[in-house]
């Protein structure tokens, strides 16, 4: 099964060398971090809801705690949850148990 990252699904263009990266900057979810590989994604691309400062719907999002309720409604998060099944990692604290 192919595991797409958020920028591939959302087509935001904010990944490195993306069409909007120069104008708006590279999204923190598309940069290397401690979340590389979480939910089998590249960088934080399948864990974007837990990364502060991501952009969704054209607005910069806040911290994990501030944006979680909104992110729980996101079709991409739901898709990752379905893809990963029992291995799905929702919170940063789950990354410690999953590794």
Map the helices and strands.
Elements: H1 6-10, H2 21-24, E1 55-56, E2 59-60, H3 64-71, H4 75-84, H5 92-98
Antiparallel strand pairs: 1-2
Output the keywords.
mainly alpha; two-stranded antiparallel sheet; 5 helices
Describe, in plain words, how this protein is organized in 3D:
The chain is mainly alpha-helical and 99 residues long. Helices cover 34% and strands 4% of the residues. A two-stranded antiparallel sheet has the order 1-2. The protein is globular.
**What is the CA-based Rg, rounded?**
13 Å
Q: Give me the secondary-structure category.
A: mainly alpha
Could you give the order of strands across the largest sheet? 1-2
Shape field: globular
Report the major sheet: 2 strands, antiparallel
Level of helix content? 25-40%
How far apart lie the N and C ends? 21 Å
Number of distinct beta strands = 2
Summarize the structure.
The protein is mainly alpha-helical. It has helices spanning 6-10, 21-24, 64-71, 75-84, 92-98, and strands at 55-56, 59-60. The chain is built from five helices and two strands, in the order ααββααα.
